[in-house]
Every structure is written in C-alpha cells, then in structure tokens.
Amino acid sequence: MKQLFVFIKKEFAHVLRDRKTLLILFGLPIVQILIFGFALTNEVKNSKIVIFDQAKDVSSLKLISKIETSRYFEIDKMLQHNQEVEEAFKTGKIKMAVIFPENFNHDLLHTNKATIQIISDATDPNTATMLNNYVTAIIGDYQAQLNKNFEVPYRIVPEVKMLYNPQLKGVHNFVPGVMAMVLMLVCVMMTAISIVREKETGTMEVLLVSPFKPLLVIVAKTIPYLILSLMNIVIILILSVFVLELPVNGNLFLLFAESTLFIITSLSLGMFISIQTETQQTAMLISLVGMFLPTLLLSGFMFPIENMPKPLQIVSNIVPAKWFYIIIKSIMIKGLGFAAIWKQTFILAGITTFFILISIKKFKIRLA
Amino acid sequence: MREIVIKTENLSKRFGTFTAVNEINFEVYKGEIFGFLGANGAGKTTAMRMLCGLSTPSSGSATIAGFDIFRDTDKIKKNIGYMSQKFSLYENLTVLENIHFFGGIYGLSNQQLKEKSEVLVNKLGLYQEVNKLVSSLPLGWKQKLSFSVAILHEPKIVFLDEPTGGVDPVTRRQFWDLIYEASDSGMTIFVTTHYMDEAEYCNRICIMVDGSISALDSAPNLKLKFKANSMDEVFYALARGAKRGE
Fold first, then answer.
1. Is B240 on the interface with A (CB under 8 A)?
2. Of the CATH numbers 3.40.1160.10, 3.40.50.300, 3.30.420.40, 3.30.1050.10, which one belongs to the domain with range B4-239?
3. Suppose A99 and one of A52, B175, B208, B246 were both cysteines; which one would form an S-S bond, judging by CB atoms 3.0 to 4.6 Å apart?
4. Contacts with B106 from chain A: Cβ below 8 Å
C-alpha cells in the first residue's frame, strides 16, 4: 500500500512539474468552454435583414417593431421597391427579407388569413433555417396576442415549442460535449502517453523487475488523472454555471458519479492504447485519430446522429462519448434522474469492463 | 565449494522460428563479477531479460538466488536489482526524489530511505545536487546514480545491461570502482557489455555467438586458450564464425 502511495506521489510530481501537461490539463477545458460558449455558438444574433412593407398598416408596423426589438435581427433597410430585394441579397450582408403584401391588416381581419413572404439567404442553410424559425416564432407570438384581444381566432398557427431549450441556446449542447471531449483528451491521451513514456525511457523495465505488481503500475498511473479529471469537471461546471449561466438542473451527485464512470472508461481506453504501442508519438496519434475524432464527430455533439447514414449510426454506438453525452445532457439540461439513463450507464459500464479485461489480458501476455 | 546464485539448464528463447537463445548452461557464483559478451543480436540481452523475469523462457530452466524463474518470480524480484541499457532514472524528478521513489517501491521504510540516501549522496559526492533535477546532471553521474539506486535495496544479484554505453573511459573506470565495491560486499554482478576492456575487469566472461555460449572462463584463461594477447582477439576469433549479422 505504501508502495502504491509512493508511486502516485511520483506521478503527481511528473504532472505538476511539466508545464505543458498542466496547460493541456487545465488550460484546455477553460479555453474550450469559453470558445464554444461564446464564439462558436450556433445561435445567430443580430442578423441583418431588410423589410419591404407594402401595407404600412397597424399589423405590419406592430410586427416590424417586434422583429426590430428582437436581438436576433437588425433591420438594415426599409425597402421601397420590389427589385430592391434582390439587390439587397447581392450585397451578401443581408440574411433575410420580410415582405408584407398590401392590405395585410385588412386581409388578416376580414379573411382571417394573411401571408407574409419570408426570403432567406440559403447559402448557409443552417443559419437560414435558424432565422426562419426565429421569425416564424415572432409572427406566431403576434398571432397569439391578436387572438387574445379578439375572440375570433384569426389563423391557426402551428405551435412550435423548443423543448428544454426555449431560447434555442447554443451553449446547452456544448457544455456536455466539451466535458466529453476534455475528459477523452485528458484521460485517454495523457494516460497513454505517460505509460508509454516509461517504456520509451526504459524506466518501465526497471519497474517491472521490481517487486511492484505490474498491474499496480498501471493503476498508480491512472489515479492522478482520475483526480485531476474530477477537478476539471468542477472547473467546467463552475464556468458553465457562472460564466455561461447554464444551471445544472439535475442531481449534482449523479452528475459526478456518471462523470467518474466515464473517466474510468477513458482511462481504460488509455491503458489499452498504452499497452498496444511503444512510442509516445504512436500513442498520441492513436488517441487523437481513434478516440478524439470519433468523440468530436460521432457523439452527436457536433452533428446530429439521426442525420447520419445508417452505417455511421451503427458505428456511433461504440463511441463511449455518445452515451456520456446523452447522460450529461439528460442530467444537466433536462434534469432527469437515474431512471432515464440507466441504459446508457449500463452500456458505458460494459465498454469499460471490456477494455479493462482486454488490457489485463494483453498486459499479462506481454510481460509473461 | 562456492555458493551458486545463478544456474541455468538448457535455457532457450524462441520468437517464432527464430531462436534467440539456444540451450545455454552456466553457473554464477556469489560475489562474482560475471561478464556477458556478444555482438549485437547474439542474444545476451534476451538471456538477461529471462533471468530478470522480463521475458518467459521457451524451454529449459533456471534458478536465481535459489528461486525458480517460472514459479518464484515474486521472490526473485525482491532479491535482484536491475539497470537497463536505456538510462533509467526519472529526468524530471530530483536526485533525492529518485532515490526515495525507487527505494520506496522496494518497500524500504522512511527511516531506511533517509539513512541510505545520506550514505549514497556522500559516496557519490552529490551534496550540491540533491535537490536538482536529474536531467541537469552529466551522463556519467546519472549512470553512477542509476547503479546506486539499483542496489539501494541490497539485492543479492544485480543485473547491468550495457551500463556504460556512451561515457568516456575515465567515468567508466569510476563506474567500475562502484561495481567492485558492491562485489566486495558479497553482491553478485551480472553485466553485459560490448567493451573488451570492461571484459578484462570481470572475474569470468561468457561469450555468446548466435544465441549459444561459445566460451566461458576468466580473461587470462581465455587468452591462453585462444593464444591471444587481448580480449579483443579472443572475441574476434569467436565472433568470426557468427552467422547473424549486425
């Protein structure tokens, strides 16, 4: 036991003395949270739009002022002629044009139905869709107001409700994603590298000749990263709550328990890689290509899994980050309990056990 | 009759169809400095790795300090020290931390560690450097420190795998002084080397060619037997017949 303690102390010294490692460990999550939280949100703010109001009546003016006050839009110009619409788009600055027909108010009040033409610059389809949603929501909102004042319903508006994320906040998706990514990076790559480094420098042989149990070498190497990763989660959560103003809706204890499970999954992957490789470069490459990229691409955090081709959807099932991402989203954003995520937890535990068992087996073969 | 601490019987190691070590038989006595010579690829490192428990023999048997290398690996580990040809201290730990770490994993108590590190630091004259990182030490000192750390737990046998690679002759001589000192205290030294001058320092020399032992005796006896003036000539006479290239 004392030997294990001596070993863990040494591992901490390695980590804490290496500025670059420290920077990756603690700088990276902070930078990622801030970048994803602020710079890379897929939320679209202050998009420039033009409005061509041919009606200039009560309803159209009210709607325009509603659009104007929304932080998503900035009205660049009020147009006077039809042909100006196309010209506006040609400048490239204008994302959308809203065109009110003549007799807008009249149509609305007398035929109970009025149309608004919305033209979007679809060169960036995601932004276009997003803006369409925003403007539709604003119109819907106005419709609801009208219907409240007058008892006759004017138009049936399909109710669009954004579950869990009514303001379509981008950060909601990113925090769990960043957590998965940081843990993957720190645990898989760092453990793999730190074990392989000992092989490279020859100290591994000395350790294996010593009475220290080989398996304990691996365990001792992973413990500092487990502790540091838990600290990382605390940092990420503090940042997300106080800087990004994203509250944790679910049980904090459950969140930490699940995170610990995922850290162990990552550590077991790191162990597995380190046993298979001989040089730090190989270990790093495998960690990046084999773990980091799938985490980024196939966990559902950057790209929705439902939109992927079937084979990729199947492959995504073996990416541990996918399950962790679902779990964290459920706890943090939806505020769900264990009952909702036991299946994902079970799968994650299964993957972990698999890699630990296979690592132990391989490790024995190598040292036999 | 001198006490035998290492004994091998038809010890072999095969990797697929390649036989790295082919049925070697030898005995090493207590307190002896036993040199293991051979060209690159002759199988000396593989043989040593089997004796240290880093590699399982394909066939044959061996006992180290009276323990069987198949069954009693744990007991063997407590009784041996090892210094690999790759430099084997932690560069980003200080001298003292390295001593404490390697002593610690051999289960030395804090009291023992304190006493031993003091003795060691005095002996190597490292007072000024105790709290410096090992990476800042010159290679010669690193190697002396590495050896001292390898015998910190007072093993019965210490295995040195090409310990003096890349250092100048003066430092090498100083390194051998440490080896003699350890040997005088009754420790058995098992050392592999390329350097023929080092071979002269050994009590007995075992020369491996193509995985087999082609000669085993003291340096003077070997020179007599091969009618050679130096160990160099002995080695060339034996290695000329080698089939395995570099």
1. no
2. 3.40.50.300
3. A52
4. 210-211
**Probe site for chain B from A203, A213, A216, A364 (most B CB atoms < 10 A):** A203
CB atoms < 10 A from the CB of A272, how many?
22
| Count of CB pairs separated by less than 8 Å, A with B | 75
> Which among B78, B81, B107 has the least Cβ separation from residue A3?
B107
Q: Which of A3, A18, A205 sits opposite B105 (nearest CB)?
A: A3
Domain span including residue A306: 2-40+169-367
pLDDT, tens digit (0-9, with 9 covering 90-100), for B106-162:
888 889 889 988 988 888 888 888 889 988 988 888 888 999 999 988 999 999 988
Query: Which pLDDT score is estimated for B9?
Result: 92
Same domain, A206 and A344: yes
Which among A13, A208, A211 has CB closest to B106?
A211
Contacts of B169 (CB under 8 A, 6+ apart): B197
- Taking only the tens place, the pLDDT of each residue in B210-225 is 888 888 888 888 888 8
Tens digit of each residue's pLDDT (9 = 90 or more) over B29-60 = 999 999 988 877 788 888 888 898 888 899 99
Are the beta carbons of A201 and B83 separated by less than 8 Å? no
Residues 6+ apart with CB under 8 A from B107: A2, A3, A211, B153
Q: Predicted confidence band at B230 (pLDDT cuts at 50, 70, 90)?
A: confident
> What are A67-77's pLDDT values in tens digits?
888 878 888 88
Residue A253 located in a structural domain: yes
Measured between CB atoms, does A207 come within 8 Å of chain B? yes
The distance of A359 to chain B (nearest Cα, Å) reads: 18
Return the structure tokens found at B73.
Answer: 């690996």
Confirm or reject contact between A201 and chain B (CB < 8 A).
yes
User: Structural domain boundaries of chain B?
Assistant: 4-239
Q: Which among B54, B85, B86 is the nearest to A209, CB-wise?
A: B54
> How far does B235 lie from chain A, in Å, by closest CA?
29
Q: Within this chain, do residues A216 and A82 fall inside the same structural domain, yes or no? A: no
3-state DSSP of B98-128: HHHHHHHHCCCCHHHHHHHHHHHHHHHCCHH
Instruction: Say whether pLDDT at B104 is over 50.
Output: yes
Task: Give the chain A residue whose CA is nearest to the CA of B75.
Answer: A211
